Amino acid sequence: MNDTLPSALSIGLARTGIELKEFFRLRETVVFTFSFPLILLFVFGSVFDTDLAPGVSFTQYFAAGMIASGIVLSSFQTLAIGIAVERDDGTLKRLRGTPMPPVAYFLGKIGLVLATSLVQTAVLLAVGAALFGLELPTDPLLWLRFAWIFVLGAGAGTVMGIAYSSLARSSKSAAAVVSPVVIVLQFVSGVFFVFTDLPGWMQAVGSVFPLRWLAQGMRSVFLPADFAGAEVSGSWQLGPTALILTAWLVIGSVLALRTFRWQRPGSR
């Protein structure tokens, strides 16, 4: 007889499977998460067919921003709304009463974010390449760059989503509290428009938040190297990108640890 208890990691992996099953059962959430970036790519790619620079179409520029935005949707928005709903309907309280280690719950959420973000990014790249001539990198070093930007961006979005979920008083208010923040960040971070075309004050506001740096990092992967001269600083700023995304990862982790609650205030 084997009396060895399963590790938190193994339980977290099992929890990831449960999270994915629950996610794909919510048809509205699945459709919005995966179709919204595709719809925007189709609309903007069809309307704006001009070149921003030699060899750089608006579609190529916009696709990089939508990849970054998709990561934020799959991490920050999905978790901030989803956890608020689970807290409101008592799911978190019931889970806390089980022998499951709390860390396994969060590992499950991390697994959910990584899986859905990867699928969404793959779909965006496939559709962009097939319908809009999106050029994919051939240099392995660019894909390595993509990997660390993706991981830092998804990590920052995940912990901030967990922390932000505490602001929603109920499941009914969750979307209203979260969605406007994501929309505003998309506008001020160079997702819907070329970042250098935004007013200076808007660039300054956007530069405080991780989406601006995540979008610029993705442009450094999918746009030609010489396009870096068209950025605000005249370079891709990979160092600052890594530092700021890491800073938000740390800040979000601290906030999540301090603010996360297994049940809504006032409940017993």
Overview of this protein structure:
With 268 residues, the chain is mainly alpha-helical. It has one domain (8-259). 72% of the residues lie in helices and 2% in strands. The protein has 10 helices and 2 strands. It has helices at residues 8-25, 27-47, 58-88, 91-96, 102-132, 140-164, 171-188, 200-206, 210-222, 238-259, and strands at 51-53, 56-57. Strands 1-2 form a two-stranded antiparallel sheet. Helix 3 runs parallel beside helix 6 (140-164), helix 3 crosses helix 9 (210-222) and helix 9 (210-222) packs antiparallel against helix 10. The longest helix is centred in the first third of the chain and has 31 residues, at 58-88. The N and C termini lie far apart (39 Å). The mean pLDDT is 88.
Could you give a quick summary of the protein structure above?
Helix content is 72%, strand content 2%. It is mostly helical and 268 residues long.
Search tags:
single chain; 268 residues; mainly alpha; 2 strands; globular
**N-C termini distance:** 39 Å
User: Which percent range fits the helix content?
Assistant: over 70%
What form results from the Cα inertia axes?
globular
Instruction: Decide which structural class fits the backbone.
Output: mainly alpha
Q: Give the neighbour order of strands across the main sheet.
A: 1-2
The SSE string, one letter per element, is HHEEHHHHHHHH
Uncertain regions spanning at least 5 consecutive residues = none
Mean pLDDT: 88
Tally of contiguous helical segments: 10
* The number of domains: 1
Rg of Cα set = 19 Å
Largest sheet: 2 strands, antiparallel
Count of DSSP strands:
2
Strand percentage: under 5%
Transmembrane segments: 30-48, 60-85, 106-134, 146-167, 174-195, 242-260
Family: Belongs to the ABC-2 integral membrane protein family.
Domain ABC transmembrane type-2: 28-263
Protein name: Transport permease protein
